[in-house]
Design brief:
45% of the residues lie in helices and 16% in strands. It is of the alpha/beta class. It has a single domain (24-198), classed as Phosphoglycerate mutase-like (Rossmann fold, 3-Layer(aba) Sandwich), CATH 3.40.50.1240. A 6-stranded mixed sheet has the order 5-4-6-1-7-8, sandwiched between helices. α2 (48-57) packs parallel to α3.
């Protein structure tokens, strides 16, 4: 075996080793929700369309490689994760770290909601909807990611979470804070992004 062949051989071994030991996180936004103005959005479930979307997520090839599944405390995320968990025969671990940016109980019109949302995304210190600020939510979310990675090194992790906090987190990783309102508006239900060893390899938008 020549020196060149040996070199190629060892490079392939190193590449495979790094891939095996790489921690991959798939961040998934929950499916379409059934809005109910009589209760806090924390309690909303999935619409019929959302249930169909969740079933389709379970058929994505990448999702079939998942080793462990986490969701937020909100049922819209656990309901989105259920078809995946059932297909892979895995448990869903709900963690409040991955909850949406906390908001109050007041139900807003579509126009009111969008105005408040833009202000929230343009100023992460602002407590929108009488709730948590974006900066506070980001700190919480990053702590959750850190803890989950520490427990699952070298595995493929699925985290089912929410559109606003997901956009804030990816904006932080990609340094795209100025684009937050536009990115949020383009993030569809069941959009997903991939982070490998702390680096974004697939954006959510």
């Amino acid at each position: 075996m020549t020196l060149k062949m040996l070199s190629t051989f060892f490079i392939k071994i190193l590449y495979n080793y790094l891939n095996i030991n790489m921690t991959k996180i798939i961040f998934l936004r929950h499916a379409d929700t059934q809005k109910d103005p009589t209760v806090n959005a924390f309690l909303w479930g999935l619409s019929e369309k959302g249930k169909e979307q969740a079933q389709k997520v379970a058929e994505i090839s990448l999702i079939k490689t998942v080793d462990v599944i986490y969701s937020s405390d909100e049922q819209k995320t656990s309901l989105t994760a259920e078809p995946v968990a059932k297909k892979l025969e895995k448990k869903i671990f709900p963690l409040s770290y991955f909850n949406e940016v906390k908001r109050g109980d007041k139900f807003l019109t579509k126009e009111e909601f969008e105005l408040e949302k833009v202000r929230q995304l343009e100023d992460l210190s602002y407590h929108a909807f009488d709730g948590e600020s974006g900066a506070e939510a980001l700190h919480r979310f990053k702590k959750g990611v850190s803890d989950v990675v520490e427990l699952n090194k070298g595995k493929t992790i699925l985290i089912v979470t929410h559109g606003t906090i997901l956009n804030i987190y990816f904006a932080d990783l990609l340094n795209k804070y100025q684009e937050l309102p536009e990115r949020w508006s383009k993030t569809i239900f069941c959009a997903y992004g991939i982070v490998e060893d702390g680096k974004v390899v697939q954006d959510i938008v």
